[in-house]
Amino acid sequence: MALFELHSRNLAQEQVAHTHDFHQLILATCGVTELSMEGQGERVTARRGCLIPSSRHHEYQGDGSNRTLVLDIPVAHLASLEKGSEIERLFDKPRFFSVPPALNQLTHALANQLEQCPALQNEIAILLLRALTMYLHDASPTEAGQLGQHCISERLDLARLDAWLDQHLADEVRVEQLAALCALSPGHFHSCFRELTGVTPLAYVQRRRLEHARTLVRHSTLSLGHIAMLVGFRDQGSFSRAYRRYFELSPSSDR
């Protein structure tokens, strides 16, 4: 029996107001949801998450085009978890929090994995909670704000690019395609993207392929050859070499 309820949802353009007897974590991979708790209102986006403690009244309304992970956490189950006390402290009060880029990337990967393998919702939920406790403990409060403000002003929407990439990991991806999504020239896009992320666009694509592959390696029974194909490698050999370079171990060892 699953300890948690984890869903990937599209929150509709309908205002909802309620309370519930479980904690709730809300993370978005794209789109916007307006949410308020006890008079404090903010937007839940790819860069802003929300923690709702049990029995706290809240209201929300989505934009109809969001992709949102909603994790319900029964309070009674926390005592049975290894890091249960740390997770409980996350919900000591209602809060919105900045989502670092690495946590956003993990959210994307886990949302995709949840949609492919719903039976793994409990394992995915635990991974998500452990990552969240780590990031909220270690990250500077301004980390998510230090994301290349110049580039953001130039319409480089990383969340939109991530969502597009996650739908095209098996395909050839060219810089020109990514630049067109942001209405920028390839040269300007390349410079802006590197300022924002610290890596080139194609290096970022490769990293995203491999991070998604790692989720499949660890949490699915798909063959390594099949996984290589799903994330855009021409054969298992090139996939294994890239995987070893990035993670410093082979996919078979990681599994």
Protein model, in words:
The chain has 255 residues and is α+β, with helices and mostly antiparallel strands. The chain has helices at 84-90, 101-116, 121-138, 149-153, 158-167, 175-181, 186-197, 201-219, 224-230, 236-247, 251-254, and strands at 5-9, 16-18, 23-30, 33-37, 40-44, 48-52, 58-62, 67-73, 95-98. The strands form two sheets. Strands 1-8-3-6-9 form a five-stranded antiparallel sheet. Helix 2 packs antiparallel against helix 3 (121-138), helix 2 runs parallel beside helix 5 and helix 6 (175-181) crosses helix 7. The chain is globular, with a radius of gyration of 19 Å. Residues 159-255 form the HTH araC/xylS-type domain. It comes from Vreelandella neptunia. InterPro entries: AraC-bd, AraC_XylS_family_regulators, Homeodomain-like_sf, HTH-like, HTH_AraC. This is AraC family transcriptional regulator. Keywords: DNA-binding, Transcription, Transcription regulation.
Compact summary:
This is AraC family transcriptional regulator. The protein has about 260 residues and is of the alpha+beta class. It is about 45% helix and about 20% strand.
